[in-house]
């Protein structure tokens, strides 16, 4: 059986490499036929050029080639997932595993809700947790959460996708896993902005901790389990992303804080997700001050000094 990967960006490339090196048959789809033709020839993709694609990875730009796969890993960015699914009816029937970390701005829903909406009855799962694509592609050890509401499906996917270096922990808490992965990107932007503005590591630790409290507040209000937020997909990924210049969200924050420009072609999931999370929190009456501050920074409506002053002037309260 074949593992299909939809999206030949950095993460899709890394996952395809890991699965192929574990001896699985892999097909990697990218939307640009010329780029896929080039990748087939050079055995490298543009977004992760340092990694070589092993022989076991077959490349295609035809979505029809993914039909009937044992599982399809959806590695397109969160805001691209809804339009992608609308053009991929041939994926119905295979378990679909969302690898994007974000909340869709137009519908204010997470990736698995988008899958369920596009393909009612098709098993929808999420793969998320602390893992840089470059680390996975190098075969460095990583541990992720594989969440699916259906326990049998999550067990099946855990075994179908785990490799010696890619260790998957299963969960049925899809809401917690999705929200942890989406919101940690917002907090990484906040932490990067604090460092970029030279506010210091103590300020970053404060933002990381209060940011984690915010992630928990929203996720628990939406029915997630506290232990999921404390696990790989929440706290684990927050620690990685909000402290490492290996993260694009963190680097984007650094640029905002230092008032520098940032390459708009780089995928920065937390930028759109800050606005989506804010809309979601207002709908259910949950206060997310750091998320609101990041949304204002991203929209260019505020400076780091203003938003920090706003956060610091909030009423003093118990931790
Ligand atoms: N890069 C990393 O280290 C990790 C990334 N992720 C997540 O994986 C998701 C994808 O990120 P990356 O692969 O890193 O981004 P990337 O920027 O490297 O690649 C994105 C890919 O998606 C394609 N794409 C964009 N819009 C599309 C559309 N409408 N239809 C089809 N394909 C489209 C692009 O052509 C590109 O190949 C994000 O949600 C990210 O948070 C998760 C864990 C690690
Ligand atoms: O999700 C990631 C690591 O777990 C990758 O983070 P960035 O998207 O910020 O690069």
Describe the structure in your own words:
By secondary structure, the protein is an alpha/beta fold. The protein has two domains: 171 residues, NAD(P)-binding Rossmann-like Domain (Rossmann fold), CATH 3.40.50; 138 residues, N-(1-d-carboxylethyl)-l-norvaline Dehydrogenase, domain 2 (Orthogonal Bundle). The protein has an eight-stranded mixed sheet, sandwiched between helices. The model has no long low-confidence stretch (mean pLDDT 96). The site of 1,3-dihydroxyacetonephosphate (13P) has 13 residues, from helix 7, helix 10 and helix 11. Pfam families: NAD_Gly3P_dh_C, NAD_Gly3P_dh_N. This is Glycerol-3-phosphate dehydrogenase [NAD(P)+].
CATH-derived architecture of the largest domain: 3-Layer(aba) Sandwich
Helical percentage: 40-55%
Widest sheet, order of strands: 3-2-1-4-5-6-7-8
Oligomer type: single chain
- Taken from the alpha-carbon principal axes, the silhouette is globular
Give every kind of bound small molecule, once each: 1,4-dihydronicotinamide adenine dinucleotide, 1,3-dihydroxyacetonephosphate
Examine the coordinates and then state which fold CATH places here, giving the name of the CATH topology of the largest domain. Answer: Rossmann fold
Write down how many β-strands occur, each being a DSSP E stretch of 2 or more residues: 8
Termini separation (Å)? 51 Å
The ordered H/E elements are EHEHEEHEHEHEHEHHHHHHHH
Whole-number count of domains: 2
Q: Taking all residues together, what is the mean pLDDT?
A: 96
The proportion of residues in beta strands is 5-15%
- Biggest sheet record: 8 strands, mixed
Number of helices: 14
Which structural category do the helix and sheet elements fall into? alpha/beta
**Low-confidence runs:** none
What is the level 1 CATH name of the largest domain?
A: Alpha Beta
């Amino acid at each position: 059986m074949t593992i299909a990967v939809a999206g030949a960006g950095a993460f899709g490339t890394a996952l395809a490499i890991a699965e192929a090196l574990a001896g699985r048959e892999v097909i990697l789809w990218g939307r640009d036929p010329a780029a896929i033709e080039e990748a087939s020839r050079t055995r490298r993709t543009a977004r992760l050029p340092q990694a070589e694609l092993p022989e076991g990875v077959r490349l295609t730009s035809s979505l029809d080639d993914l039909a009937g796969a044992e599982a399809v890993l959806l590695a397109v960015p969160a805001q691209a997932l809804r339009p992608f699914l609308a053009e991929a009816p041939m994926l119905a029937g295979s378990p679909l595993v969302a690898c994007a970390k974000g909340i869709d701005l137009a519908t204010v829903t997470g990736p698995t809700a988008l899958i369920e909406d596009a393909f009612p009855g098709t098993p929808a799962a999420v793969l998320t947790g602390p893992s840089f694509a470059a680390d996975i592609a190098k075969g460095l050890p990583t541990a992720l959460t594989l969440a699916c509401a259906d326990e049998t499906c999550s067990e099946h996917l855990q075994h179908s996708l785990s490799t010696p270096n890619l260790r998957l922990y299963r969960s049925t808490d899809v809401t917690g896993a999705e929200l942890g992965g989406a919101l940690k990107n917002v907090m990484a932007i906040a932490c990067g902005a604090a460092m970029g503005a030279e506010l210091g590591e103590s300020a970053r630790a404060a933002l990381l901790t209060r940011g984690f409290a915010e992630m928990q507040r929203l996720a628990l209000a939406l029915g997630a389990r506290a232990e999921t937020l404390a696990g790989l997909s929440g706290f684990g990924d927050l620690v990685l992303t909000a402290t490492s210049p290996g993260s694009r969200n963190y680097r984007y924050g650094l640029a905002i804080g230092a008032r520098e420009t940032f390459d708009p072609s780089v995928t920065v999931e937390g930028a759109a997700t800050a606005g989506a999370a804010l809309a979601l929190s207002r709908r259910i009456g949950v206060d997310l001050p750091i998320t609101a501050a990041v949304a204002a920074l991203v929209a260019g409506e505020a400076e780091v000094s203003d938003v920090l002053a706003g956060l610091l002037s909030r009423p003093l309260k118990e931790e």
